[in-house]
Amino acid sequence: MAEPIQHPVNGNEIASILAAISPDRFKTYLSAAGYDQERALRLYLWNARLGEAFHTPIQAVEVGLRNGINLALSRVYTPNWWECKNLFDLLDEERKGDLVTVLKRIRNRKLELYTGQVVAGLSFGFWVGILDGRYNPPIWGGQLRTAFPFLPPGRGRKSLHERVGVVATLRNRISHHEPLIGRDNLADFSNLMTVLEWICPAKAVWIRPHCRVSQIVRERP
Questions:
Q1: What is the model's pTM?
Q2: DSSP labels for 78-107?
Q3: Which region holds residue 177: left if phi is over 0, alpha if psi is between -120 and 50, else beta?
Q4: Does residue 13 lie in a domain region?
Q5: Domain assignment of residue 17, yes or no
Q6: pLDDT value at position 213?
Q7: Number of separate domains in the chain
Q8: Which of 23, 105, 168, 221 is the most exposed place for a label (fewest CB within 10 A)?
């Protein structure tokens, strides 16, 4: 059963809410609702609930991905890979910028500088970027199956990179409060669970019963 939604009681409240959302942001929902403002507001809340539901599988994928890549980098460049010049020189400019920013932030906060702190501070985009073809073979020529031992036969770095790229796009849309109503939400969820199975099948089995994406998709106004 869908969660109860409190409707605005009068036109002035609707107008005030729409102004707070902004016409440009709201127009996607309004169009999808056939220009019924109350239904569009229900869609807006549903979109927020759906984004919230996606958080659990996205978090599971992100944490598993970065831990696998951290293992690969540690094997190639030592556990303190983040201070290795050979790796830094290999990185593209965006990844260099990510790393410099995180190291600066940790130092400015006077926190202990160690690998776990660096790994936790780096963006999802950093980890997705490390799967790019430019890092094969220096990193992935010998470490792909070490980092991701459950990758199915016939699936390699490119397949994983493509799928986590889709996850990153979805994650960014949710983080920036963008509409999910134009996406195939069940396909997004299926992709997430496939990636998680490739990273850790046991974690995928553990997480799935706690995911509410399919339920909320069925509750769309």
A1: 0.91
A2: -TTGGG-HHHHHHS-HHHHHHHHHHHHHHH
A3: left
A4: no
A5: no
A6: 98
A7: 1
A8: 23
Instruction: Quote the pLDDT of residue 155.
Output: 96
Residue 12, domain member (yes or no): no
pLDDT at 25: 92
Give per-10-residue mean pLDDT for the chain (221 aa). 51 84 93 94 96 98 98 98 97 98 96 96 97 97 96 96 98 96 96 98 97 97 94
pLDDT (0 to 100) of residue 14: 84
Q: What angle do CA 210, 213, 218 make, to 5 degrees?
A: 125
Please name which of 5, 64, 66, 52 lies closest in space to residue 211, comparing C-alpha atoms. 52
How far apart, in whole angstroms, are the C-alpha atoms of residue 57 and residue 73?
24
CB-based contact 59:175 (threshold 8 Å): no
Nearest-angstrom CA–CA distance, 39 and 60: 33
For tokens 């980098």, name the residue: 73
**Which amino acid is located at 156 in the chain?**
G
What is the C-alpha end-to-end distance of the chain, expressed in Å?
12
Enclosing domain of residue 110: 46-218
Name the residue among 182, 217, 178, 210 with its Cα closest to residue 58. Answer: 210
